[in-house]
Specification:
alpha/beta; rod-shaped; 13 strands; HTH-type_LysR_regulators; transcription regulation; two-stranded antiparallel sheet; LysR_HTH_N; seven-stranded mixed beta sheet; single chain; LysR family transcriptional regulator; DNA-binding
Length: 297
């Protein structure tokens, strides 16, 4: 059974006349009659009662037409949805981002973008770097805002640098270092460490910073979000290396700049090379590049 046969049947059933149906479909009457005959042969029943060129659906035809109408409606709606999703003005962007980028950066980017493209919709996915990259390579996510380094980037991932963020040593207020203007990372080498869970980009970065400082960190607690880490630090459960983040209670936690080693992380946008980006997603990718005036690596 071919799709064209269903179209021919639907039109013929609606017009109940071979000649008019053939004219509407821009085919010859014999070609239309042969198509209907093949369809009936495949179904094993007649669909019409014939009276010359005029035809009327029988009970089998009426039942089958209901199904065909549903199929055709689903097809047309699918075509419409795809057209909307692939329209640069009416499409959809599937965006992944780190928890730490959720409160400020992502809402601001979307707000500014939708001022130019108000009809584009977003699907938002918030998780750790590895999960986001896995989902992006599987095609579930168009673009990721995450922390990456070029040496950690899988071969099929394209990466555009957006900005660099300073990382601070967080200590509870009242800690012996809390009033210092800056510290060396090795000064907290004997402290219990509150860190991020394995698989999080910040965990990999901080582990490497500790290694660079000659520290074997004693990780006593692990969290998933900066607020959780900062709360554990405020409770006196250890110190941490985190970015400055809106909502951290500075009356409970002191954030100290690090003199050595250089404690920063790069924030960038990633996408999968060779994967299709809808016009809407490509518009958003270019918008972010323009917004940060970035250079793709």
């Amino acid at each position: 059974m071919e799709w064209q046969q269903l179209e021919y049947f639907q039109t013929t059933a609606q017009l109940e006349h071979i000649t008019r149906a053939a004219e509407a479909l821009s085919i010859s009457q014999p070609a239309l009659s042969r198509s209907i005959a093949r369809l009936e042969q495949e179904l094993g029943v007649s669909l019409f009662e014939r009276n010359g060129r005029a035809i009327v659906l029988n009970r089998y035809g009426k039942m089958f037409l209901l199904r065909v109408n549903r199929i055709m409606k689903e097809y047309q709606e699918g075509m419409r949805e795809i057209a909307e999703l692939t329209s640069p003005q009416y499409g959809e962007v599937s965006l992944g981002f780190l928890h730490t980028l959720g409160p400020q950066l992502v809402p601001e980017l979307i707000r500014q973008f939708r001022a130019e493209y108000p009809h584009i919709q977003f699907q938002l996915h918030q998780s750790n770097t590895q999960t986001l990259l896995d989902r992006m390579m599987n095609g579930d996510i168009d673009l990721c805002l995450t922390s990456l380094r070029e040496r950690d980037t899988p071969q099929q991932i394209r990466w555009a640098y957006l900005r660099s963020e300073e990382l601070f040593v967080a200590v509870p207020v009242g800690h012996q270092l809390a009033e210092r203007g800056a510290v060396r990372l090795d000064e907290v080498g004997n402290e219990p460490i509150v860190s991020f869970k394995m698989g999080y980009g910040l965990r990999k970065i901080t582990d490497e910073l500790f290694q660079q400082a000659g520290i074997q960190p004693k990780v006593t607690f692990e969290g998933e979000e900066v607020h959780t880490i900062a709360g554990l630090v405020a409770s006196g459960l250890g110190v941490a290396v985190i970015p400055d983040f809106q909502g951290i209670d500075r009356s409970q936690v002191s954030l100290l700049p690090v003199e050595w080693p250089l404690c920063r992380r790069n924030i960038g946008m990633a996408w999968t090379e060779g994967h299709y980006l809808s016009p809407a997603a490509e518009q958003f990718r270019q918008f972010i590049v323009r917004h940060f005036d970035t250079i793709s690596l």
